[in-house]
Amino acid sequence: MEIIDFHTHIWPDKVAEKAKQYLEKSFRRPMTAVPTVDNALSVMDKNEISKSVLASVASRPEQVEHINNWLFAIKSGRFIKFASMHPFYDKWSYELDRIKDNAEGIKFQPEFQMFFIDDEKTFPMYEKIQKLQIPILVHCGYELSLTGLVQAGPKQMLNVKKYFPEIKFVAAHMGGFQMWDDVEKEIIGDDYFYIDTSSALTFMPKEQIYRFLNKHNINKILFGTDFPIGNPEQDLKLIKSLDIKPENLEKIMHANAEKLLGC
Question: What single-letter DSSP state applies at residue 262?
Answer without folding.
Answer: T
